[in-house]
Design goal:
The chain is mainly alpha-helical and 318 residues long. α11 packs across α14.
């Protein structure tokens, strides 16, 4: 079996057996195509002829010639490592070259951006807009105006993004049947196709979703999608990012705010308010608790900055 065929076999197994998401499979395919491009000609395109020195040559090419960051190289090496482990488990190679290849990368912890209470409060306040006027337009016979629909939808969207900490891709995939206000929960199709349920126990969030569902466009539209654009189609990732950006701009926030910033902010604030790490992991849908632990670093950094900026002893120059 040549290297290209082995990689296709691996990717098919990842899709059928591991149930990996399309975006993950695409990333795997890209990383392994790069591996073939660099290592293939030096190993006669035979995975059994890939040696530890060739693996080191692969890393050296990424680092010195293509100038990739350590984090990018580490991710690519992890994919190639999974590939060779798969071949070893299927007895398609005699020896796994990674067993005698050691790599070390600088581990940089990059803290994701978060909002403070004043900033998230400003965004939530702006998203509500003039809802009192929009509520007056809701009746079985009234004509739903575009601006009222957008205003109500955006309020429900912002509230749900921040409350659940969901990924923007998860919000996009939500269908009407996934939002159960009667029983107070939302069901997400998470990363790696792992379903999870997030319970709704906040009155403003429930009210925002209830009002949106009452004003939601019916008839000639996507009857499944929860969040619609003004043309009645499923709201896209770009559409959600745009609405968040517009709302942040109206709140006079100068920095770039994305839906993922809401996720980081929600997780950080939950930990700061006493939530246990395991619960936050389950709410966010992280496969590993190590991913969730990044937010403990953010909490510690916030406390450190608070001591520096607000402790009275630091303000007394004596």
């Amino acid at each position: 079996m040549v290297l290209g065929e082995a990689i296709m076999f691996f990717l098919n197994a990842c899709e059928l057996e591991k149930n990996l998401a399309f975006r993950t499979l695409t990333a795997y395919s890209s990383d392994l195509a790069q591996f073939i491009n660099i290592v293939g000609p030096r190993s006669e395109n035979d995975p059994a002829l890939v040696t530890p020195p060739l693996l080191h040559a692969f890393v050296s090419e990424l680092k010195n010639t293509r100038r990739l960051s350590d984090s990018s190289i580490r991710r690519k090496v992890a994919v190639v490592r999974r590939f060779f482990k798969f071949l070893e488990q299927r007895d398609l190679i005699g020896s796994n070259p990674f067993r005698k290849a050691n790599f070390s990368f600088r581990q940089r912890v990059r803290l994701p951006p978060v909002l403070n209470q004043q900033e998230i409060g400003a965004i939530l306040s702006i998203s509500k807009g003039s809802l009192a006027h929009a509520v007056q337009q809701v009746s079985p016979t009234s004509k739903i105006r575009r601006k009222h629909f957008v205003m109500v939808r955006d309020n429900a969207l912002i509230e749900l993004l921040f409350y659940t900490g969901a990924r923007v891709g998860e919000i996009v995939k939500l269908n009407l049947q996934d939002c159960n206000l009667a029983n107070g929960y939302v069901k997400f199709d998470g990363k790696g196709r792992r379903d999870r349920i997030v319970h709704l126990s906040c009155s403003p969030v429930m009210s925002a979703l209830d009002l949106y569902l009452r004003m939601r466009i019916h008839g000639k539209c996507d009857e499944k999608a929860l969040f619609l654009n003004v043309r009645g189609k499923r709201l896209s990732v770009y559409g959600i990012e745009k609405r968040v950006s517009v709302c942040a701009s109206k709140a006079n926030l100068k920095r770039r705010i994305t839906p993922h910033v809401f996720r980081h902010t929600m997780a950080t604030m939950m930990l700061e308010n006493g939530a246990d790490l395991r619960s936050v992991q389950e709410i966010l849908g992280h496969a590993s608790i190590r991913t969730t632990q990044i937010y403990t670093h953010i909490s510690c950094e916030h406390r450190r900055q608070a001591m520096i900026q607000h402790h009275p002893r630091n303000l007394l120059w004596m």
